[in-house]
Amino acid sequence: MLMNGRIGKLATLAIAALAFSACSKKDSSAVDTTAASSTVTGDTSAMSTGAPPAATWTDANIFALLDEANAADSAAGALAVTKGTAAAVRDFGRRMTRDHHQLRVQGEALAKKLNVTPSAPSDDPLPAAAQKEMDTLNSTAKGKDFDKAYIDSEVDAHKAVLDLATKAANITQTAELKALIQKAAPVIQGHLTLAESIQSKMK
User: Fold this and answer.
1) Is 3 exposed, middle or buried, given 0-12, 13-18 or 19+ CB atoms closer than 10 A?
2) Could you give the 3-state DSSP secondary structure of residue 41?
3) Angstrom distance (rounded) from CA 160 to CA 85
4) pLDDT tens per residue across span 15-33
5) CA distances for 17 relative to 85, 172, 184, angstroms
6) Which pLDDT belongs to residue 77?
7) Could you tell me if 10 and 2 are in contact, meaning their C-beta atoms sit under 8 angstroms apart?
8) Residues 62-89, buried b or exposed e (16+ Cβ, 10 A)?
9) With a threshold of 0.90, does the pTM exceed it?
10) pLDDT less than 50: residues of the chain
11) Which residues, at least 6 apart from 94, have a Cβ–Cβ distance to it below 8 Å?
């Protein structure tokens, strides 16, 4: 998920949906590299304006968007682990990689159980937005600039994810998917609270 306040939008759709699941998962040291290349985007504004109307989402759309969002946040976290300077930032990146990887695993398992094939909306802006975000983080110098850019983006992303999770839970008529999203909400809030705490200590 991510760059100074712009991630809010990108995260809004992708991360919100996916993060809600990933955030509710248990610890896993596995690093998700499946979508590492197309995971974070520097300019989230593009995503917010290009996000498909939530009211039109099907369960297949929700599963796909969630997976894209989780993959993006996992990849951004992996980058923060290697490029972050502050211990708190690196630790946060590890947690995001672990939690969102687990979220992807949970989402994939539920989709398989429900026999739903994830299918992104035709106007899905997440892949391009995620790539742009990752490009921005990759081009930001290691040090305080990167740490701040990453944490700022994570704060915006998790706010967006909470909003997206709420919308997705209200839209789906599938009890198990709704339950998964609702169970993840407190975890996402925990991520947001931690990110805001780290952010408040940065100058």
Assistant:
1) buried
2) strand
3) 26
4) 444 444 444 444 444 444 4
5) 29, 12, 10
6) 95
7) yes
8) bbbbbbbbbbbbbbbbbbbbebbebebb
9) no
10) 1-51
11) 77, 81
